């Protein structure tokens, strides 16, 4: 059993990650923290509670975090995720309550009180995590690992160079990468590989399970958009945490570009074996990160479909 906390900006693919984490029998999801990202924080909170309802999850503390990046002005991705960040499907509001503790305090309390080491899985801009690391370094030391969706060793999506979560708050990402906590980066090099198709929609919507039906409707909503591929996206980071055998990692020195230039938000990734003489000053000091460079697409898709299309473990 792996003990995990998610940090999300729910978001369609964050929803896929939450459904999976709430339902997988070997994952103990002990809390979720929310952050401004795909959409504004208040909507992220609403969406997260709705997804937990649909997943049939037990009561899990969900708390509110940063409503804006450390320095940047928020820039949302509603063109990708719908105006409510969740495909505009008119999903009913949840009766669940938000935990009154701010996100960084919830993280501290959950990590300090967990009998087992916690894996933190951010699938969103890293503002909450950077604030937590600064406020509670002793708690951060107890983390087993951070497995994050963010960054890219190849090209970007928010800009030519930068991936959205890192681009949204580059200063926060730089703090997290340099924190000393072991990090696995599930970035754009693999993020778009877990493509869903009309057969998946048909099998999910035909299910008697409410979570599977909801997932099918979400996928269906986007599958008809021309030139848009629906992928399980953020879920891949959770799959990597629980089933590292489904992900191939390579060690890179990763530095986050915080310059005010066109490359702002880029994660510069240099293979660890690169000679010092071939590295720039920033790269030489950059932390070594396990970067996912390939994934077992069939294995990850099958794992998600089986887990989401099952009875909840209330
Ligand atoms: C990331 O940005 C968001 O749109 C997705 O939810 C994912 O976390 C991809 O760049
Ligand atoms: Ca996300």
Helix/strand layout:
Elements: E1 2-8, H1 12-23, E2 27-34, H2 41-55, E3 62-64, H3 78-81, H4 103-113, E4 118-122, H5 127-135, H6 137-140, E5 145-149, H7 164-168, H8 170-177, E6 183-186, H9 188-191, H10 198-205, H11 210-223, H12 235-242, E7 247-256, E8 267-271, H13 281-285, E9 288-295, H14 297-308
Parallel strand pairs: 1-2, 1-4, 2-3, 4-5, 5-6, 6-9
Antiparallel strand pairs: 7-8, 7-9
Helix pairs in contact: 1-2, 1-12, 4-5, 5-8, 10-11
The structure holds beta-D-ribofuranose and calcium ion.
> Can you give the helix content as a percent range?
25-40%
Report the principal-axis shape. Answer: globular
The rounded distance between the terminal residues' Cα atoms is 16 Å
Q: How are helices and strands ordered from N to C?
A: EHEHEHHEHHEHHEHHHHEEHEH
Strand content: 15-25%
Rg (CA only): 18 Å
CATH homologous superfamily designation? Ribonucleoside hydrolase-like
User: Which CATH class applies here?
Assistant: Alpha Beta
| Distinct small molecules bound, one entry per kind | beta-D-ribofuranose, calcium ion
- Using the coordinates shown, work out and report the CATH topology: Inosine-uridine Nucleoside N-ribohydrolase, Chain A
Instruction: Find the count of extended strands (DSSP E, 2+ residues).
Output: 9
Task: Average the pLDDT over all residues and give the rounded result.
Answer: 93
CATH architecture: Alpha-Beta Complex
- Structural class estimated from helices and strands: alpha/beta
Q: For the largest sheet, list the strands in their spatial order.
A: 3-2-1-4-5-6-9-7-8
Total domain units: 1
